[in-house]
Design brief:
With 402 residues, this protein is of the alpha/beta class. It has two domains: 15-213 and 337-398, 3-Layer(aba) Sandwich (Rossmann fold), CATH 3.40.50; 242-246 and 252-321, formyl-coa transferase, domain 3, CATH 3.30.1540.10. It has helices spanning 24-34, 64-69, 83-94, 107-110, 115-121, 146-152, 174-197, 207-213, 218-225, 260-270, 273-278, 282-287, 289-300, 305-314, 325-329, 332-336, 378-386, 390-398; strands spanning 15-18, 38-43, 73-77, 98-101, 126-131, 201-206, 242-246, 252-256, 319-321, 340-345, 349-354. The protein has a six-stranded parallel β-sheet, sandwiched between helices. Strands 7-8-9 form a three-stranded antiparallel β-sheet, with helices on one face. It has a two-stranded antiparallel sheet with strand order 10-11. Strand 2, helix 2 (64-69) and strand 3 (73-77) form a beta-alpha-beta unit. The longest helix has 24 residues, at 174-197. It holds the Pfam family CoA_transf_3. InterPro entries: CoA-transferase_III_domain, CoA-Trfase_fam_III, CoA-Trfase_III_dom3_sf, CoA-Trfase_III_dom_1_sf. This is CoA transferase.
Length: 402
């Protein structure tokens, strides 16, 4: 019995040069690759993307982070700092639809492969540029990583307990991943415009901007009445009870009552109708937050976590376990939704990775392979796309260009 060919993916025929390093840009291009784009990862000869050394090392010498975020890509080594390397890069850009880079502003220009240089050889090119502070402005030259973006963008100030220091808001790479998502959206919109007009464009995203963009009412509230929100701990100033509660077995749950109706449901499953009468409005609950949270905490501590979740779920109260990664790997819902996938990585063996998002019904994305070995596709790409002979490639290799 012969198997049917894989479903065509929506970005097949799109070629992307990924010269970005670390996470934000590579995450953006990984999404494009999942949905069919041919992504050629351009890396420094000898060392490659610094993301190869970020996180847990594998048997192959690079990291699990790299295996995940270089999924479906081809690896080409090319030293853009050398004139011959820049020449090869421009030749590749002339045959591509998208270039992604994440160097400090002005770096690509110094190498002769900036926006003006690449647009001259390919007017329809889309160029995604991710940096700490953007391509212009007084901070443009400053180095930036996600942790700095969390701080500058306003998120770190909000993270932590009210009487404690600001803390890292979850993953130190959160801002990278958010920026990568905005980058993907920008590329798709720019490609649509290029299809209609033949005109490419530059996409300029700063890491701190993606962090700032998701802080709900922070800006309008301050401008309106001068409120500077601070750290709210496990709760929020806008709803109650709305936080994290310990259970009898030492595990934790999150409960979110964002409306009076939801609070009534909670009081019903708790068997405390008196609370609905006394604290029936959000204003009343916020005015006596400590008491309300204390009563809910005493109730959740009377049962193990799974029972709390089950009772709340049966009563239509929003509640979920605060999962560790061990919990997630054992969760039937994650399994049913296929949120994790096992991929065989060359030189490493099977690795488990987060699966493709979003899920498309007609043209779903997929993971064909994990991140490649450094330079695995250099000869093939340069021969097939640029027609470079074996002797020409050998000369480039001898000069340290590839």
């Amino acid at each position: 019995m012969t198997s049917s060919p894989p479903t065509p993916r929506p970005l097949e025929g799109v070629r992307v040069l990924d010269a970005a390093t670390f996470i934000a840009g590579p995450f953006s291009t990984a999404i494009l690759a999942e949905f069919g784009a041919e992504v050629i990862k351009v890396e420094q000869p000898g060392t490659g993307d610094s993301c190869r050394q970020f996180g847990t090392r594998t048997e192959r010498g690079d990291s699990l982070v790299f295996l995940s975020e270089a999924r479906n890509k081809r690896s080409v080594t090319l030293d853009l700092r050398k004139p011959e390397g820049a020449k090869v890069f421009k030749a590749l850009a002339a045959q591509s639809h998208v270039v992604c880079e994440s160097f400090r502003p002005g770096t690509m220009e110094r190498w002769g492969v900036g926006w003006a240089d690449l647009r001259a050889v390919n007017p329809a090119l889309v160029m995604l540029r991710i940096s700490g502070y953007g391509q212009d402005g007084p901070y443009a030259d400053r180095p930036g990583f996600a942790r700095i973006a969390h701080a500058v963008g306003g998120l770190t100030h909000l993270a932590g307990m009210p009487d404690g220091p600001p803390v890292t808001p979850g993953s130190t790479s959160l801002g990278d991943y958010m920026t990568g998502l905005f980058g993907t959206v920008g590329v798709l919109m720019a490609l649509r415009h290029a299809e209609r007009t033949g005109e490419g464009q530059e996409i300029d995203i700063a890491l701190y901007e993606s962090v700032f963009r998701v802080l709900d009412e922070l800006a309008p509230r301050y401008v309106r009445d001068g409120t500077v929100r601070g750290r709210e701990g496990a709760g929020t100033l806008n709803a109650c009870p709305h936080g994290h509660f310990e259970c009898a077995d030492g595990a934790w749950v999150a409960i979110a009552c964002t409306s009076d109706r939801m609070f009534v449901r909670l009081t019903e499953v708790m068997g405390r109708a008196d609370l609905a009468e006394r604290y029936g409005t959000t204003a009343a609950r916020l005015a006596d937050r400590a008491t309300v949270d204390g009563v809910v905490q005493a109730w959740t501590r009377s049962m193990p976590r799974d029972q709390v979740v089950r009772v709340c779920t049966d009563g239509h109260v929003p509640c979920g376990p605060i999962n560790t990664i061990a919990d997630i790997l054992d969760d039937p819902h994650f399994a049913a939704r296929r949120n994790l996938v096992e991929i065989l990585a060359e030189g490493v063996g099977p690795v488990t990775l987060p699966n493709v998002l979003p899920r498309l019904s007609a043209t779903p994305g997929r993971i064909d392979h994990a991140g490649p070995a450094l330079g695995a596709d250099t000869d093939t790409v340069l021969a097939d796309l640029l027609g470079l002979s074996e002797a020409e490639r050998a000369a480039l290799r001898a000069d340290g260009v590839i």
